[in-house]
Amino acid sequence: MSSLDSPTPSGGPLEFDLEEIRPQQHVVVCKWDRELVNALLEITSHLYVVLDDYDIDHSNPDWDILERVERVYRVREFDSIEGIASVAADLSLQGVEIDRIISFTEFSQFGAGYLGVLLEVDTHDTMRHVSYRDKRIMKSRVQKAGVQTATWRSVGDRSRNRDVMRVREDLKFPIVLKPASGSGTINTRTVASQSDLRTVP
């Protein structure tokens, strides 16, 4: 069985357990983590590591440890479709069938998920990786699970009057505008009234 893992704090629904890894499994790790890579090398020699420029420049990857993995890939960033597709192409051309992809940071979720789709690792839910970063998909799934969330609307293009009018009609002001994807409160704004909606940059 193949899977895409996204470790979460203890007790989370996608908690990653090293005991689930088997020696014959081929595993991709997205992002550098010394302890994780060392622990996986104790279990399987079929380990592939994908690093991005941030890992190289700021995370001090241990090249002695990385010499022990099957292959190391470097992408500009995990949101780079071209970079992730190149990793998938190389693995495919080598005839490697990946059993698991481990993505343990928010910023590697899109890339790891896309890699899983390309390599057919996670075929039962091809949008799962998107739901980790896209607030619309995340809220929709949380609502379907029975968790109450704030009323929200998605605006495709705020220059379209129809899209803006729908927000004005459906939501009570003040409202909070957030980008569909992103982390924390980056580019999040509070809009006090309907007249202020069009003036938001």
From TrEMBL:
Q: Which domain of life is it from?
A: Bacteria
Q: Keyword annotations for this protein?
A: ATP-binding, Nucleotide-binding
Q: Which residues form the ATP-grasp domain?
A: 139-196
Give start-end of the signal peptide: none
Q: Which InterPro entries match?
A: ATP-grasp, ATP_grasp_subdomain_1
In terms of SUPFAM superfamilies, this protein maps to: Glutathione synthetase ATP-binding domain-like
Q: Name one GO molecular function term.
A: ATP binding
Gene3D superfamilies associated with the record: 3.40.50.20, ATP-grasp fold, A domain
> Which protein is depicted?
ATP-grasp domain-containing protein
